[in-house]
Design brief:
Structural class: alpha/beta
CATH superfamily: P-loop containing nucleotide triphosphate hydrolases
Number of helices: 10
Distance between the termini: 19 Å
Bound molecules: adenosine-5'-triphosphate
Largest sheet: 9 strands, mixed
Shape: globular
Order of helices and strands: EHEHEEEEHEHEHEEHEHHHH
Helix content: 25-40%
CATH topology: Rossmann fold
Strand content: 15-25%
Oligomer: single chain
Length: 297
């Protein structure tokens, strides 16, 4: 179905152009999953990394596209901040493809920070340019064969999130939140946006939902005494997992060992369980909807 109602260029519609979602030029991707939050700092990039690790543990071939172009965190999660993207020739003269950086577990990652001289260098680009760059990172990377490509999306409902939701072949979104009604309200905006753009939402992961005391062993809520389940119910989303706030995680992250920590810490088995069964229902629905949009102009 052509999403003309929400198309950014509907007034300049060019009937001669075929409306369709973008595709990777090099390689095959079975499923594209967007990981998104409404608000910044709730742990979306961290959760993207943890999902990637758990999908890898399930035996899938996994890639991660760091879609948070101006605030990329994926290289740090995987301890790859010193790595740089390679370039390989293509069949077309003078055209090159990006070679993703591989993590310890063999996850293929691509991020704008792999292309900068220094990781602190800011990108002084505006929305449309950022959107084009993101499209190019997706289409021009040599992904090989992937079962899942996770996109770490920028927070909120701005330009880049719109570009991803309208033009990328996203199978479904995973919401990341913290159990606070202030955050849930903003996440709800993203849920409503997804609904308008006809993208299914698999459910919500409540990050930093509790703290497990190492002294008494008890689990304490961090933000609220309302359960993560009741917050998820309010948003009308399936609760996929609750994750603890864990200071040890930050230590591992700062040592470049977050991937290993996420792979070996039983706290993250809940994510493994949540992604164990494939989302046949969602994929079947997407096939039926046959999404199409105006290509990026
Ligand atoms: N469950 C957790 N336990 C401990 N620290 C965490 C947890 N989740 C996230 N953090 C830390 O919180 C900080 C913010 O996390 P992260 O970068 O994943 O957030 P984000 O939602 O992607 O932020 P933004 O969208 O604003 O870039 C990071 O330093 C991360 O290490």
């Amino acid at each position: 179905m052509v999403k003309c109602a929400t198309c950014a260029v509907k007034n300049k519609c060019r009937k001669d152009l075929k409306c369709e979602l973008i595709k990777p030029k090099y390689g095959k991707i079975k499923h594209v999953v967007g990981v998104i939050s409404g608000k910044g700092g709730v742990g979306k990039s961290t959760v993207t990394g943890i999902i990637a690790v758990q999908l890898r543990k399930l035996g899938y071939k996994v890639g991660v596209l760091d879609g948070d172009i101006t605030g990329p965190s994926i290289p740090r999660f995987f301890g790859l901040e010193k790595e740089r993207t390679g370039y390989a020739p293509t069949e077309v003269k003078d055209a090159y493809k990006f070679v993703p950086v591989e993590t310890g577990l063999g996850i293929k990652a691509i991020s704008m920070n792999f292309m900068l001289g220094e990781e602190e260098e800011p990108l002084l680009w505006k929305g449309p340019v950022l959107g084009n760059v993101l499209v190019q990172l997706f289409t021009d990377t040599d992904w090989g064969e992937l079962d899942y490509l996770l996109i770490d999306m920028p927070p909120g409902t701005g330009d880049i999130a719109m570009t991803i939701m309208e033009q990328f072949p996203v199978d479904y979104l995973v919401m990341v939140s913290t159990p606070q009604s202030m955050v849930s309200m903003i996440v709800q905006k993203v849920v409503n946006m997804a609904e308008k753009l006809e993208i299914p939402v698999k459910g919500v992961i409540q990050n930093m939902a509790y703290f497990q005391c190492q002294g008494c062993g008890e689990r304490h809520n961090v933000f609220t005494n309302n359960s993560a389940q009741s917050q998820a119910d309010k948003m009308g989303l399936k609760l996929l997992a609750e994750l603890p706030i864990n200071p040890e995680f930050t230590d591992y992250l700062e040592d470049g060992q977050a991937e290993r920590f996420a792979a070996t810490n039983p706290e993250y088995d809940v994510i493994y369980e949540a992604f164990k069964t494939d989302d046949e229902e969602i994929y079947a629905r997407n096939k039926a909807v046959k999404k199409k949009v105006i290509p990026f102009l």
